[in-house]
Design goal:
The protein is mostly beta strands. The chain is built from no helices and 11 strands. The strands form 2 sheets. Strands 2, 4, 5, 6, 9, 10 and 11 form a 7-stranded mixed sheet that branches. The protein has a 4-stranded antiparallel sheet with strand order 1-3-8-7, with no helix packed on it.
Length: 118
């Protein structure tokens, strides 16, 4: 299983970015795909998740209303649209796969850095 994240960069506060995560290596029909982030000196935290089959989503309170997770089944890709970015959103963002949507994310991609300047 490979998860390839991309789309990070430097953006001003109030701006937008879209992260992508391409999943490969097997089928993901039973999975939940999630985004997590880790800011400097802090623990990794959950951001959002989507059930691959149903498209059901769930968000951390800190990003609700600003971030949108979506997936394109044909491209095996999960997206994280981030709007109204704040300096506290600065972090390395990781995508991860939870094979049976059980809450255990066993597969992780490399991170992509998002930096939000004030």
């Amino acid at each position: 299983v490979q998860l390839q994240a991309s789309g990070g960069g430097l953006v001003q506060a109030g701006g937008s970015l879209r992260l992508s995560c391409v999943a490969s290596g097997r089928t993901f029909g039973s999975d939940a795909l999630g985004w997590f982030r880790q800011a400097p000196g802090k623990e990794r935290e959950f951001v959002a998740t989507i059930a691959w089959n149903s498209g059901s989503t769930y968000y951390a309170d800190s990003v609700k209303g600003r971030f949108t997770i979506s997936r394109d089944n044909a491209k095996n890709t999960v997206y994280l649209q981030m709007n109204n970015l704040k300096p506290e959103d600065t972090a390395v963002y990781y995508c991860a796969a939870d094979r049976f949507a059980s809450g255990n994310y066993n597969y992780w991609g490399q991170g992509t850095l998002v930096t939000v300047s004030s």
